[in-house]
Amino acid sequence: MYGKKVKLRFLFLALILFSVILSLFLILQALKNNVVYFQSPSEIKSLIKLDKKKIRVGGMVKEQSISINSDEINFVITDFKNEINVTFSGAVPNLFAEGKGVVAEGFLKDRNYFSATKILAKHDENYMPPEVKEALGVK
Amino acid sequence: MLANQIGYYSLIIGLLFSFYLCGVSIKDFNNNNKNVNSNIITLSFLQLTFVIISFLSLILSFINSDFSNETVFNNSHTTKPLFYKISGTWGNHEGSLLLWLLVLTLFIFLFLIKSREQPKKYRILTLLFQQLIIIGFFLFVLMTSNPFNYLFPIPAEGLGLNPILQDPALAIHPPFLYLGYVGSSIIFSASLAAVVQNYISKEWGQHIKKWVLISWIFLTIGIMLGSIWAYYELGWGGFWFWDPVENVSLMPWLTLTALFHCILVLERRGALTSWVVILSITTFMLSMCGTFLVRSGILNSVHTFANDPARGIFILIFLFILIFLSLSIFFLFHKENNKGSISLFWLSKESSILINNWILMYFLSVVLIGTVYPIFLDVISAEKISVGPPFYQKLISPFLAPFLLFMAFGPKLKWIKSKIENKGSLIIFFIISVILTFFILKNITTDLLFYTILISAAFFLFFTTLKELFFQNFNNISQAIAHFGFSLFILSILFNSILSSEVTTNIKVGERHNYDKGEIFFEKIEEKKKSNFNSIIGYFKITNNEGKVIELNPEIRVYNQPTLITSEADIKTTLLQDNFLVMNIVKDNEYFNIRYQVKPFMLWIWISVLLLGLGGLISLLKKKYEK
């Protein structure tokens, strides 16, 4: 009925369409499960339900709050309205210091305790991650 | 001071040359001469010269620490070593854009002198499209990012270059990456010109292939240099983090790789014309997008020098103009070329290339969505999210195995229509790979099935290309080396991820820390003064369970200008593994935070990428195309 060329082209289009749909489906599925949300200490305080998912908390490291022993580093992240205690065992970046911006990734134990698996602060001294800036309400 | 003025006015003259060149080219396009007017090449050379003068005068300002120049003031310091004063020229926003411009003008000049046997109208059109991009970048530099802004009163001292950028690998990383990024501009201009002239053909394929290869090689090496730097300087202890800034350089690499393979089909069969054009356009657009995302401050990283919204908007508008222009040209002018027989037999070299193109496009969409989705979500809902490595690993790894298999099979097949030859040896190789993988992995991983599939596919590619390298005639050696490099790359990263181990702890001087595989002893610290930083060197002895002692001396540097602490990891590299130790101070505490990692096959990751580049280089240098 149709020429061979038309058939081939049709098959080709169908394959492309199919693979586009398949890959979009896969990608969206994976996105749903692997996205890490960013929250400020105040947002965490106002959470109704605690999620078991991994999140990021950002703000400033409170002055005089860092304490270290051989296993862990404890500190407080503040957005100057609310704060949250963080425990962390692992490698800290160079720019991790009191009074500086920080982003911690990990899991909430409750509204006041956060167990971090990763600390991010890979920028220069004056740098504040945009998330932190916004959380602190700095323009 | 003088250098400053010379630099600025050279830029303006360079821009004027652009307009003049456009005028002359349009005139030349319409007359009937056989060859391109030689004035055009001279003009293009002069334009290049002025951009070089401008660039050199900026370097000179950096060398002389001329702080009347705002760019120098912001990014340099008198105590900085000369090497980093020079590399600081492109270690900042303004200077790096000047470098873009330099490469843009350099490539069009090289294109003009290297394309003499090509049709005249095609060459002139390429020049016009390229000049359009060049004008855009001239305006961008002059209007939003002038590297020669004048400061008064003249400051006595500069602000200094971010110390983590003061590094040899990072000094040459931007030029390489830019040669790759900007090299794709020539492919873009040339393919648009070829579309307008209806010249997408086998001959065009042969001619543009070289340009694709040049960009591809530089981009490959450029990405690797950035990756090496992140490995030892940022102390993250890995080679790829799926960080958005890394992703934006990977995306054009994926399309460029796909493009190169399609051009092989084009030069041989005259097929896939539309796809080649689309890939050419996409590659350059992704390079531009990369620049936009990185420079506009949307992605936060060491590349974000200043958050100036005007710059982002300028690039965005420019990007939209180029996309609109190229798409309209594509739809208005592109005609399917029906001369060649386009029928596709399922078992042939071109169909296996197409399948892998498909997979590459899938990888591209994964990376693209993972990178752009968080930005998109932030804009529409102000929700902040990030997409981590598991997302990419989960989506990419299942398709890696078929990808590797086709890389092994494809080159064995003939063009047009083929049978599988040497079935026996392929099957034997396949069985060997699976068995070998199974016995290697049996005791070391929990996720046996997943890794067995992946690693045996990689081993299969490894053995087939290895055999090709030793027993085949040499007409396909570039392909064999590159594919062999890729199999080595995948093997190294897989074994690296399975076998890596890591200890982190907080430790005082003189203390010992015991962990499951040995003991870390923190012997002492030593302080040293250098010209622009003070360093604290830690002396560590690590004894593993077999009693072998490794001494590692990581360093903490306290830079004076700007005040910043960096950690220099100490890495003992051997053929089989890297021992990586990095230390940090937290507060003025007596505890040091240390991270000790054993990373197998790190060296092979870099070597395999070099092999990939070498394969490209050989393909670039050899005269004949693939059989």
Q: Key terms for this structure?
A:
heterodimer; A: 139 residues; 2 domains; 5-stranded mixed β-barrel; 3 helices; B: alpha+beta; 4-stranded antiparallel β-sheet; 62% helix
Description of the structure:
The complex is a heterodimer of chains A (139) and B (627). Chain A is of the alpha+beta class and 139 residues long. Chain A contains 3 helices and 7 strands; from the N terminus they run H-E-H-E-E-E-E-E-E-H. Chain A has a 5-stranded mixed β-barrel. In chain B, strand 3 (512-515) and strand 4 form a beta hairpin. Chain B is of the alpha+beta class and 627 residues long. Chain B is built from 17 helices and 11 strands. Chain B starts with a helix and ends in a 6-residue tail after the last helix. Among the domains of chain B are: 1-166, no CATH class; 501-602. At the A-B interface, helix 1, strand 1 and helix 3 of A face helix 12, strand 1, helix 13, strand 2 and strand 8 of B.
How many domains make up the 3D coordinates of chain A? 2
Distance between the termini of chain B: 58 Å
Largest sheet of chain B: 6 strands, antiparallel
Q: Structural class, from helix and strand content of chain B?
A: alpha+beta
CATH architecture call of the largest domain in chain A: Beta Barrel
The number of E-state strands of chain A comes to 7
Helix and strand composition category of chain A: alpha+beta
CATH superfamily of the largest domain in chain A: Nucleic acid-binding proteins
**Percentage beta strand of chain A:** 25-35%
- Total beta-strand segments of chain B: 11
N-to-C SSE string of chain B, H for helix and E for strand:
HHHHHHHHHHHHEHHHHEEEEEEEEEEH
Low-confidence stretches of chain A: none
> How many alpha or pi helices of chain B?
17
Order of helices and strands of chain A: HEHEEEEEEH
Rg over alpha carbons of chain A = 23 Å
Given the structure, what is the number of helices of chain A?
3
What is the mean predicted local confidence, pLDDT of chain A? 81
Describe the global form of chain B. flat
Q: What is the general shape of chain A?
A: elongated
Unreliable segments of chain B (pLDDT under 50, ≥5 consecutive)? none
CATH fold-level name of the largest domain in chain A: OB fold (Dihydrolipoamide Acetyltransferase, E2P)
